[in-house]
Design a protein that fits this description.
With 357 residues, the chain is α+β, with helices and mostly antiparallel strands. The protein is built from 11 helices and 7 strands. The protein has a 7-stranded mixed β-sheet with strand order 2-1-3-7-6-5-4, sandwiched between helices.
Length: 357
Amino acid sequence: MEYFDKRYHQPGTPPGTLKSAAMAGSTSLAIHLFDYSETTFSHIEDANPAQCREYINRDNVTWVHVEGHPTEQSIRELGEIFGLHKLALEDVLNIGQRPKVDEYDDQLFVVVNLPSVTGADFSVQQACFFLGKHYVVSFCSTDFSLFQPVVKRLNEPASRLRKNSADFLLYSLLDIVIDQGFPVLETLGWQLEALEEQILKSVGRDTLERIHTIKRELILLRRMLWPQREVINHLLHGDHGSISEGTMIYLRDCYDHTIQVMDLLETYRDMSGSMLDIYLSSVSNRMNDVMRVLTVIATIFIPLTFIVGVYGMNFDPNAGKWNMPELGWEYGYPLIWLLMISCVGVMVYVFRRKGWF
């Protein structure tokens, strides 16, 4: 994930300017339209803004989902049809917004972050929702398959979604986005567990790089997911006429999920910090083991160096009886070797008894 992923206009640009930034790897734009009541349901897979206009004045609940990164023209047309505020539309185009709730006349504008994981790579997409009296307009660049559970429930005549108003649809979509944090954190948990086992077995430079990578991802995830608790709390306690009492009960459950996500995230942050300490301790212990072995070897050779140094002195034994008489012994050379081997054996025995190696 990028450290700075916000798209913005040049400083001094008038507020509400709809100017789309170039998006690398963005999906093609597609509009999904759903219109339903307790007894009816219709779905247009690839709708256009003109078709959306036909459904706006109905008493049914209408859900318009824009998949991919919208163009300036498409978002301007949708804004005119649904009466979306230009400041909110600007936030839709300029991704990287902090999760928030804004109120514009009879509309609620909600921005949340959608985490996802592909293999070992993590990413966060922005999801925006407009809640009106009978409609929800959502924008998200990720694949629409994420919201298929909601579509499946809409296809069931007896589902709770079909019996409630647009605010319950908004809750259902927010619940999916927030619950996406659990599989992401589950993957992070597996990676932390594998990394912990690797640290305890052996350490290397790649281990340190992986620790820093996970710490960075956790920091970025926290920055992007932490404000979502405030968003749900604002919906629960704000004076919004668009949110019914019946939906408040389910939003409280959604708020609990945000707390669980943050608790797991904070736990994993602490674990990653402790892993760095474990890594540094392992490196220090390994260095101590190496130094201990080298010290033992050097200590063993100290008396041997002393012995050969003494008998390496150039004294003439014929000049006097005290000038190294053992140099003239018949078995002097083997005795010196026996002395040195005995010194080594005694020192190794003593070191092992003391547990030094």
